[in-house]
Design brief:
The complex is a heterodimer of chains A (613) and B (221). Chain A has seven helices and 36 strands. Chain A is mainly beta. The longest helix of chain A is centred in the last third of the chain and has 20 residues, at 527-546. The radius of gyration of chain A is 23 Å and the shape is globular. Chain B has 221 residues and is α+β, with helices and mostly antiparallel strands. Chain B is built from five helices and 15 strands. The longest helix of chain B is centred in the N-terminal third of the chain and has 11 residues, at 18-28. Chain B is globular and about 50 Å long. Classes of the chains: A mainly beta (613), B alpha+beta (221). The interface between A and B is large, with 53 and 36 residues.
Chain lengths: 613, 221
């Protein structure tokens, strides 16, 4: 079995742990007044403990510490982020501007709105967002102005835009473009409104974050020139991969620019969130600054994702650059031993920590799938068995655990499955895993207390994502890990060795262009083998949205079981949907991520499992 | 009255409750149809919408650039304001806007529907000009303040700060636009230039502000 498939059994919702009295994390739904409508697209707390949320209906609402809600502001356009200065002053990132909303007369409602920034171009294209918002120690605001989408067929005309319209193309794209100034750029906005472009190459990073030390990160979405979602570290002058935004760079010459030049400039993610196992559409980035109130992950990073998952990441600086590891945190293992209460909502892309250390999650539907709502995650002070962190060493990795692991399971190298892979850097949507290989663990050195282990690998190369599958490990009281899967992004080794393009390479001529060989191989397999292959693909790529039971996500991902019209389409129609996607329904195109044979196989699995018998 | 308005009333009106909504629509002349179709709405949690509160939306509007404002003034007078060029696009009377095609929000953006006839239009580049009336100035939007029965828009014209207050004339007969400047700006000659019309030289009132009344009756729809 290929390494690509070996770990797939780990990524569907798990039933590994036996029920026990403690649940670790409890998920609660937060009631909202009926008047608070639309998805939650911004969450924060004021210094006095007032909860502040923004909605896709263009409103800002506040919930005081007494539980009373009030509408603070209305009439905004996609207010996707906020910085709460006080109960009277809220900074809001919405589509046209950065606004400072102030309640000057103390009646509980903002009356004065100062426009800070707003020097970027906008049109009526639906995908043009201003993702934010963070404020650095100097008072500057940080955010990203996203690209436009070719999924919107509404023509962009000069009379309906703000800014200089330049429809010229930079290389080839398959979905997103930048026809107006600073679309696809991360920006810094000074308190006086002066805008400074920081870095280019962004697509749709629907989440920004600022580390406690002031490092700016965003959570990018996969797509053209974006092999997978991931945590990007943003510094002045960076280029993060999507070529469309380069046209606004002073001195840039599109006529002579090549894909290879773009790849050589590409700063790949500090932490790759592999598409599928780590969700498909990430959100806001949040550092655990609760001082232990949220569990044993102080200083680590959390990010919600549309597909009912909260990701946990741990960063380290290697040879001067950030990189690190990610794990599923909530949503992939919903057994009673680990979580209790409600299920995570689809669409949880906004997050903040409350003063009491609980994690608030805002959910928004309407981008193709998802629900509207507000949730809260509370740690019950029971430490779940997890890999707490993974650090790079000279020869492999050093793993630490939240609970002592059994000496017997920790000592066996066979209990540590390590695979590595990378991606194509390409104009097509996403990428398959390429250059996959199993990496032998040649030695394990557990600590005496069972809280850590050092792995020595037969091979350690920069420029790969290392997958760690640890389902066989057990704690001293025989519990499995709550989430036994992790991905370490090794852009650099400790000695500074690195590769061009980070965890990507360019496709070789003919690669990923045709897959006749793979299609022919599938054609010769038996129906049972076809379904078995399709199940693996379904678990990797389809489960996050369509769910293990095929019932999808309300309002978005198709429910194969209950909506019989979904599979009433012909094979050819369904293969086209899988290959090309349905942009307006949030269905990504899998044509560049899978072979024709894999698409045929996954359809066979879907029909066999969820179709009419 | 567009019947969909009853199903998806303006969020501000919806949240404020039936009584206030009715009061607003009486002024807009759309009470009857609404009264037939709109059940009372809960008043909990939401501060009541004051009768003189200005409604505001930044959604896509017909014949308008991205980022434009829709303001609903008391008295059934509504305006589409373009902050990019610092001017009015048009005004309409009656109800505010129908958001049925806009919300619940989905991926694609569609324009809201105006709930009344357009009774005034302006086209051209930035209309407010300091000094040379023939030169289009550089306008930079700075913000807005919602006041009882009016809205104040703040921007600069060639760097000179301007505060423009828009309110409705009695009986929905038109708009009053009041321009305030700092000392340097107040001493300069100001004109208002709309495409296809003669330039207007603005004169000060007793307080030093410039007043521009826009009567709808004289305007071409």
């Amino acid at each position: 079995m290929k390494p690509f498939f070996r770990s797939l059994l780990l990524i569907a919702p798990l039933a590994l742990a036996a029920p026990c009295a403690h649940a670790g994390y409890r998920i609660e739904n937060i009631p909202r007044p009926a008047e608070l409508r639309g998805g939650i697209v911004g969450v924060g707390f004021s210094p006095t403990g007032t909860l502040v949320v923004t909605t896709r209906y263009g409103e800002v609402w506040m919930r005081s510490t007494t539980g009373a809600w009030r509408c603070f502001a209305r009439g905004l356009n996609e207010p996707l982020g906020l910085v709460v200065e006080s109960d009277q002053v809220v900074y809001i990132a919405h589509r046209p501007e950065l606004l400072k909303a102030t309640d000057t007369d103390g009646d509980g409602r903002a009356d004065t709105f100062d426009a800070l920034g707003g020097q970027w171009g906008i049109s009526h294209n639906y995908h043009e967002f201003f993702f934010g918002l963070r404020r650095d120690s100097a008072g500057n605001f940080l955010g990203v102005i996203s690209n436009s989408s070719s999924g919107d067929k509404l023509p962009i005309t000069p009379g309906e835009v703000r800014g200089r319209l330049d429809p010229s193309a930079v290389l080839e794209t398959t979905g997103q473009y930048s026809s107006l100034p600073w679309r696809g750029w991360a920006v810094k906005i000074a308190p006086d409104g002066k805008l400074t472009p920081l870095a280019s190459g962004f697509r749709q990073p629907n989440g920004v974050g600022l580390s406690p030390d002031g490092d700016f990160f965003v959570n990018e979405n996969q797509g053209d020139y974006k092999p997978s979602c991931g945590l990007l570290h943003v510094a002045q002058g960076d280029f993060h991969g999507h070529v469309a935004s380069l046209k606004w760079e002073p001195g840039f010459d599109a006529k002579t620019f090549t894909t290879e030049q773009a790849w050589k400039r590409y700063k790949s993610p500090a932490v790759v969130f592999p598409h599928g196992p780590m969700g498909v559409s990430g959100g806001e980035i949040l550092w655990d600054t609760t001082g232990g109130k949220f569990g044993p992950f102080a200083g680590q990073v959390f990010a919600g994702d549309y597909t009912k998952i909260v990701i946990r990441a741990a960063l380290e600086k290697v040879a001067g650059e950030w990189q690190g590891v990610c794990f599923p945190f909530l949503g992939r293992n919903e057994t009673a031993a680990y979580t209790s209460g409600e299920k995570l909502l689809a669409g949880i892309t906004r997050s903040t920590f409350a003063p009491d250390g609980s994690l608030y999650l805002g959910a928004a539907g309407g981008w193709g799938a998802g629900a509207n709502g507000l949730q809260r995650v509370v740690w019950d002070r029971e430490v779940s068995p997890e890999v707490r962190d993974v650090k790079l060493t000279d020869r492999g990795f050093r793993l630490t655990f939240t609970r002592p692991m059994s000496a017997a399971t920790l000592a066996a190298a066979a209990n540590f499955e390590v695979n590595r892979f990378r991606y194509y850097y390409q104009y097509k949507y996403g990428s398959p895993w390429v250059d996959e290989a199993r990496v032998a663990v040649t030695a394990v050195r557990p600590s005496a207390d069972g809280l850590s282990a050092e792995l020595a690998l037969a091979e350690l190369k920069p420029g790969f994502v290392y997958e760690l599958s640890l389902a066989a490990l057990r704690t001293t009281d025989n519990q499995p890990l709550a989430n036994p899967l992790g991905y370490y992004t090794a852009n650099r080794l400790l000695n500074g060795e690195r590769t061009v393009g980070g965890t990507t390479r360019l496709p070789r001529p003919g690669e990923n262009a045709g897959d006749a060989k793979a299609a022919a191989a599938v054609a010769t397999t038996s129906p049972a083998e076809l379904v078995a292959t399709g199940e693996k693909i379904y678990r990797l790529y389809c489960v996050p949205c369509h769910q293990p039971d095929g019932r999808g996500i309300a309002g978005g991902a198709a429910n194969f079981r209950d909506d019989k019209t979904r599979l009433a389409k012909s094979d050819a129609e369904l293969i086209t949907i899988i290959t090309e996607g349905v942009e307006l329904k949030g269905m990504p195109p899998f044509g560049a991520m899978t072979t024709a044979g894999q698409r045929k196989a996954v359809l066979a699995y879907i029909r066999a499992t969820f179709g009419e018998k | 009255m567009n019947s969909r308005h009853a199903a998806v009333p303006h969020p501000a009106a919806h949240a404020a409750g039936h009584a206030v909504l009715v009061a607003r629509l009486v002024r807009g002349g759309t009470l009857f149809a609404l009264a037939l179709t709109c059940a009372p709405l809960p008043l909990r949690a939401q501060p009541a919408l004051a009768p003189d509160e200005v409604l505001i939306e930044r959604v896509m509007l017909p014949d308008a650039r991205a980022g434009c404002f829709a303001f609903g003034l008391p008295g059934g007078v509504n305006v589409c304001y373009d902050p990019t060029r610092g001017g009015l696009n048009y005004a309409w009377t009656g109800g505010f806007i129908d958001l049925t095609e806009v919300r619940p929000v989905n991926k694609l953006i569609k324009a809201a529907t105006l709930l009344g006839p357009v009774v005034y239009r302006e086209t051209g580049t930035s209309p407010l000009r300091r000094g040379d009336a023939n030169r289009a100035p550089v306008v930079a939007f700075k913000g807005y303040t919602l006041r009882p029965a009016s809205v104040e828009l703040r921007y600069t014209v060639d760097g000179a700060p301007v505060a423009e207050t828009i309110s409705a004339l009695p009986n929905a007969a038109g708009l009053r636009r009041t321009f305030r400047f700092d000392r340097a700006g107040a001493d300069a000659p100001w004109s208002y230039v709309v495409e296809g019309r003669p330039a207007l030289t603005l004169t000060k009132d007793a307080t030093g502000n410039l007043i521009l009344d826009v009567p709808f009756a004289a305007a071409k729809p």
